[in-house]
Specification:
Elements (H helix, E strand, L loop, with lengths): L24 E7 L2 E2 L3 E3 L11 H4 L3 E3 L2 E5 L5 E4 L1 H14 L7 H13 L13 E10 L12 E10 L10 E6 L16 H16 L4 E5 L7 E4 L2 E7 L2 E4 L9 H12 L3 E4 L12 E6 L3 E10 L2 E4 L8 H14 L10 E3 L4
Helix pairs in contact: 2-3
This protein binds pyridoxal-5'-phosphate and 2-OXO-4-methylpentanoic acid.
The site of pyridoxal-5'-phosphate has 12 residues, from strand 12 and helix 5.
Length: 345
């Protein structure tokens, strides 16, 4: 149990998933093969070399994780070690030198500890979103990895990604724009995937669909993932999710699969043909930002697959959502050891 802390006077219950300034971010610099000590900063901007490969060639990777205040007032980060591991994989793929796990964890802990007044109070449904980002900084004009790098972690309090929180959303299968390529970087959290997905995202939104769904870029036959979240489906007592080399390995999805097993469900991770989707009972979009967002319908060419009422999510996704969110706020015992407590002196 920790003592009461001063909180900012934000409207916690109505926070959007957006940027709010907090007091500190932390910066590390890689030069001559070594990472510097972390420097806390209250600046919101960074000086960047005009010839930085992070700017020109997209040599950049990022992460996203959430921090919660629990029912007994502890401060906990949800599985940050998994984000550190995934960032390592992303960095390796785009030739960024290894970022030590310990450095990643220290950065997350320091940013959280220096911004406790922005951690949304328990019961508001909001959280502190932590965004680590790394980019090639040293000047280089010919194509090649940078000689210098910058790693920054900032934090910002956020509410739900989709309006209304746990409320069903409509998805559109976008086929004319891909977010990832076969043998590309779809399985890494790098900015280029999101730039590639922007047109598809905007296209879907203009037609009234908050969520684009992408198919596998090679055959356009199998479900890959949503623009910013993984695809999951429920059929009877089975939890299904695609096996694909071009999707981001979601930490939320991985956690939900374990929860599903704990709740007595079968879990199948395998290629899922788009033609199979109409037979599913429930479909969800899952991720750190999206949490579990129920999908009420998927529009695919001239077909509409319907899974639930636009106002009411299905029972299994509701159960999974509740289990995950209650575990994150300490209302359900964390038997998995997923909560990383950050003790602030
Ligand atoms: N897929 C994409 C493309 C994402 O951007 C995200 C968000 O991080 C996810 C899936 C979900 O991953 P995670 O649950 O680790 O946040
Ligand atoms: C996350 O869920 O953490 C993400 O990074 C998605 C982002 C595009 C908002």
């Amino acid at each position: 149990m920790q003592t009461e802390r001063t909180k900012s006077d934000l409207d916690w219950k109505n926070l959007p998933f957006g940027y709010t300034k907090t007091d500190y971010n932390i910066r590390y610099y890689y030069q001559d093969g070594k990472w510097s000590a972390g420097e806390l900063s209250s600046e919101e901007t960074i000086p960047i070399h005009i010839a930085a490969p992070g700017l020109h060639y997209g040599q950049q990777a990022f992460e996203g994780l959430k921090v919660f205040e629990t029912v007994d007032k502890r401060i906990v980060a949800f599985r940050p070690e998994e984000n550190a591991r995934r960032m390592k994989v992303s960095c390796e793929r785009i030739c960024i030198p290894e970022l030590p796990m310990g450095l990643f964890m220290e950065a997350v802990e320091k940013v959280v500890a220096t911004n406790t007044k922005y951690i949304p109070p328990y019961g508001t449904g909001a959280s502190l979103y932590v965004r680590p980002v790394i980019y090639g900084a040293g000047a280089r004009v010919g194509l090649g990895p940078a000689s210098e790098y910058v790693f920054i972690v900032f934090a910002t309090p956020v509410g739900p990604y989709y309006k209304g929180g746990f409320k069903p959303v409509k998805a559109l299968v976008v086929e004319q724009f891909d977010r990832a390529a076969p043998n590309g970087v779809g399985d890494c959290k790098v900015g280029g995937n999101y730039a590639a997905g922007l047109r598809g995202d905007e296209y879907a939104k203009k037609l009234g669909f908050p969520v684009p769904l992408y198919l596998d870029p090679k055959e356009k036959k199998y479900v890959d993932e949503f623009g910013t979240s993984n695809f999951i489906a429920i059929k009877g007592n089975t939890y299904l999710t695609p096996e694909s080399s071009s999707i981001l390995p979601s930490i939320t999805n991985k956690s939900l699969m374990d929860i599903a097993v704990l709740l007595g469900m079968d879990v199948e991770k395998r290629p899922i043909a788009i033609d199979e989707v109409e037979h599913f009972d429930e479909v969800g979009a899952v991720g750190t930002a999206a949490v579990v967002s129920p999908v009420c319908s998927i529009h695919y060419r001239d077909k509409i697959f319907t899974f639930c009422d636009p106002d009411k999510a299905g029972p299994v996704l509701t159960r999974l959502y509740e289990y995950l969110t209650k575990l994150q706020t300490g209302e359900i015992k964390d038997t998995f050891g997923w909560l990383h407590e950050i003790v602030v002196k």
